[in-house]
Design goal:
Elements lengths: L1 H38 L6 H4 L2 E5 L4 E5 L9 E5 L6 H4 L3 E3 L8 E9 L2 E10 L11 H9 L4 H4 L1 H4 L82 E4 L18 E5 L7 E10 L10 E8 L1 E4 L8 E4 L16 E6 L7 E11 L1 H4 L2 E5 L2 E9 L21 E4 L18 E5 L7 E10 L10 E8 L1 E4 L8 E4 L16 E6 L7 E11 L7 E5 L2 E9 L9 E2 L2 E4 L9 E2 L6 E6 L7 E11 L11 E8 L74 H8 L2 E2 L9 E2 L6 H14 L2 H6 L3
Parallel strand pairs: 2-6, 7-10, 11-15, 12-16, 17-20, 21-25, 22-26, 28-32
Antiparallel strand pairs: 1-3, 4-5, 5-6, 8-9, 9-10, 13-14, 14-16, 18-19, 19-20, 23-24, 24-26, 27-29, 30-31, 31-32, 33-34
């Protein structure tokens, strides 16, 4: 318990020492500033009176318990006479913040012009959980290092003696801070009452610095946490451009700064024309990462110097043999003037001109001057009094200047401006021009015999070429179907005198081309027109693929009777040129229903569409006429056994039956293999070409039906000469071997 009390007392004593030290430093700073000001006249110098100083209100060292609210004591800006200036206070920036939920030392910075003051705030755990352990030797060393004048002259320190009862809770208020009054020099007795530490703290060698202990004895070192980043996504710093107007220009950020962040600028407040880089500096607290600066361009463009109040008036002089001139008046400083044709000696008149320019100083901020020239007439009248000398008309108010037109097919003329003298008229030569070109027009003045003749005036009439705007021209895209012919697109509505050059405007094959029509001017139109608008048009030429005419081509289905041979379907009609056909599903032999597809192809697929395929059904049915008693007429090769065989007539259903008959076997189409031991020679039939060798030729000649050798229609039977039967069979067999698969299928024997 005793240790905790001692520790608390040591903490309070340490805080009092730091507070006293700060107060003494503030007093010393005020004295130094006062001495400096008095050395310059003690208030007599106007420049000194205009100096301003930043003062902190309250203690520069504060201690708060965890969770205790931090209330900013504030600050003031005073002049050298101690007067507060609220306008200057608005320019003070405050950096840093205090987190009373976390034990630690916090620093608040106050910046005003080139002055920076600091306030230290300590957040401690008042529950005793983090008590301070101040080393007695360190405390002793610090005490011994304080100002010695406290021992030698205790009256000046105004410290309480051992018998006095100090007030440990009392803190110096804002009124206790020195005000640096120029007339009242602070004495030693003005020092605030110090806590009973026996010796005052030693003031810092640098008056503007506040004590910044980097480590307070006995205080816990806070665990560093990762610093957060401010969300600056809504903050923008855009460049800006102004025109010189003699005022200072600035650029500022846009968007809302995060809480606790302030901004200051360098590079703003520019007056003269030029391009400047302005930097925005952002200030946050120690718990966040530093915010990078932002830069932007401040551009001040040169202005046009507006000349006003300058007069350059026509004048008339009487001939005296001397040279006369006109002088412009009211010329501002920095504006130069140069004259042309501004002198005259002889009787007559001439037009004088003054041209204004900018001095080197004005050139920094102005690009030009307006008006840049003024004109006047200088006139010398005849000698007076000489009644024989004719006076001249006053033509000073008459001006004849050139004009420019654009060709529009109409006549154009130019005329004088101003009021002619009484009795004077004017005529023109060179006016009334239509075509583009440059023409000199002359104004002839006619007066009376009592005045001097008036010199002619000339001016330039200019007619510029126009742009020929075409309208009503159509260059439309076209789409055709391929026909082997070349196709083009032709523009319509072309005006007379407009030439057309077509590019990429011919196509034969299917596809797409972009044609261009380029327009130009004929030689006649080129006299008054410089170009054509629009100068070109484009259109798309599309040639679609053609589709072959398949209206005369069909693929029909059919039904056939099974005979063990392959069947196929074929299209009927003539295929268009360039179209070929192939089949899918042909050449079937078994009983069933089959879908046959005719697939078409074109030789030129780039210009022709492929015709759609055709399908038909091929049906192969069973032979409904088979009779076991009479034999299979439709299928002589049927070898189904028949229990109904008649030995007298032969086994019609089984020609290979080799049982011995009572009678010789009859050789029939359904029984080509008669018994070798027949009494009579075997008959040879188309289905039994292997009868006895001696009877082969005769049997073939007598019983075989042959298809036409050159025909392609099944069923046309020709009876061949028995003498050449063998040769015919051999020829047919040889044809089957040599023919292609499609030809073999078409033979039906």
């Amino acid at each position: 318990m005793s240790n905790n009390v001692n520790s608390t007392n040591n903490k309070q004593e340490q805080r009092k020492k730091l507070r006293n030290r700060t107060i003494i430093i503030a007093i010393v700073i005020a004295i130094i500033l006062l001495l400096i000001r008095c050395s310059h006249g003690c208030g007599d110098d106007e420049a000194t009176k205009q100096e301003y100083f930043l003062h902190l209100l309250g203690d520069t060292e504060m201690e708060l318990e965890l969770g205790e609210e931090y209330i900013e004591p504030g600050y003031e800006v005073r002049d050298s006479n101690g007067n507060r200036n609220e306008e200057k206070e608005a320019k003070v920036t405050v950096e840093g913040s205090v987190d009373t939920d976390k034990v630690g030392e916090y620093e608040i910075r106050y910046r005003f012009e080139n002055q920076t003051l600091k306030r230290h705030v300590y957040v401690v755990d008042g529950s005793g959980g983090s008590s301070e352990n101040i080393d007695s030797s360190e405390s002793k060393e610090e005490t011994e290092g304080s100002i010695e004048s406290s021992e030698t002259n205790p009256e000046e320190t105004n410290e309480p003696t051992a018998t006095e009862s100090p007030n440990p809770t009392k803190k110096p208020s804002a009124t206790q801070a020195p005000t640096a009054e120029p007339t009242n020099k602070p004495s030693a007795t003005q020092a605030p009452t110090a806590e009973p530490t026996n010796k005052p703290s030693k003031p810092s060698a640098k008056p503007e610095e506040s004590p910044e202990p980097t480590e307070r004895p006995g205080k816990p070192t806070p665990t560093p946490e990762p610093k957060k980043e401010y969300d600056m996504s809504s903050v923008k710093f855009a460049s800006a451009t102004f025109t010189y107007d003699g005022n200072a220009h600035n650029i500022f950020i846009s968007g809302e700064l995060p809480k606790g962040v302030s901004v200051s600028y360098t590079g703003n407040g520019k007056v003269d024309a030029g391009t400047y880089t302005v930097t925005a500096h952002f200030h946050g607290d120690d718990k966040h990462q530093a915010i990078p600066d932002m830069t932007a361009k401040l551009t001040i463009n040169k202005a046009v110097y507006q000349l006003s109040g300058v007069k350059f008036e026509s004048k008339t002089f009487t001939y005296d043999g001397k040279q006369h001139s006109i002088t412009a008046t009211g010329i501002p400083n920095g504006v130069t003037a140069s004259y042309v044709d501004n002198t005259r000696t002889e009787v007559g008149s001439n037009k004088a001109t003054v041209t204004f320019g900018l001095s080197e100083v004005l050139n920094k901020n102005y690009s030009s001057i307006s008006p840049s020239t003024l004109s006047a007439t200088i006139t010398i009248k005849g000698e007076e009094p000489n009644p024989t000398e004719k006076p001249s008309y006053d033509m000073s108010g008459v001006i004849f200047k050139g004009e420019t037109f654009t060709y529009d097919g109409s006549e154009h003329s130019i005329f004088i401006s101003g009021k002619l003298p009484t009795g004077v008229s004017v005529t023109y030569t060179g006016n009334g021009k239509v075509n583009a070109g440059t023409y000199t027009v002359t104004a002839h003045f006619n007066g009376d015999d009592k005045h001097q003749p008036i010199p002619d005036m000339t001016a330039i009439l200019t007619i510029n070429k126009a742009v020929f705007t075409i309208s009503g021209v159509a260059f439309n895209s076209a789409t055709v179907t391929y026909d082997g012919q070349q196709h083009t697109i032709t523009p319509t509505g072309i005006p007379n005198g407009i030439t057309v050059n077509l590019a990429n405007n011919a196509r034969t094959n299917a596809g797409e081309s972009t044609a261009t029509a380029n327009f130009g001017l004929s030689e006649e139109l080129s006299k008054n027109y410089s170009s054509v608008s629009p100068s070109s048009l484009t259109a798309t030429l599309t040639i679609l693929k053609a589709t072959p005419d398949m209206s005369g081509v069909t693929l029909s289905g059919k039904t056939v009777t099974y005979n063990s041979r392959p069947y196929s379907l074929e299209i009927s009609g003539s295929l268009p040129a360039g179209v070929s056909v192939s089949y899918i599903g042909n050449g079937v032999t078994e009983v069933g229903s089959y879908t046959i597809t005719a697939v078409f192809s074109v030789a030129d697929s780039s210009n022709w569409n492929t015709p759609s395929s055709m399908t038909a059904t091929l049906i192969i049915e069973k032979d409904k006429n088979d009779n076991p008693d009479e034999g299979d007429k439709e299928n002589p090769d049927d070898d189904d056994e028949d229990g109904d065989d008649n030995p007298d007539e032969g086994d019609k259903d089984n020609p290979d039956n080799d049982e011995e008959d009572d009678e010789p076997d009859s050789v029939t189409p359904s029984n080509p293999g008669g018994s070798e031991e027949d009494d009579e020679p075997d008959s040879v039939t188309p289905s039994n070409p292997g009868g006895s060798e001696e009877d082969n030729n005769v049997a073939i000649a007598e019983s075989t039906n042959f298809s036409e050798l050159d025909g392609d229609k099944p069923g046309d039977v020709v009876q061949q000469n028995p003498d050449v039967a063998v040769e015919v069979i051999y020829s047919i067999t040889q044809q089957r071997e040599d023919a292609s698969e499609s030809e073999a299928k078409s033979l039906d024997i």
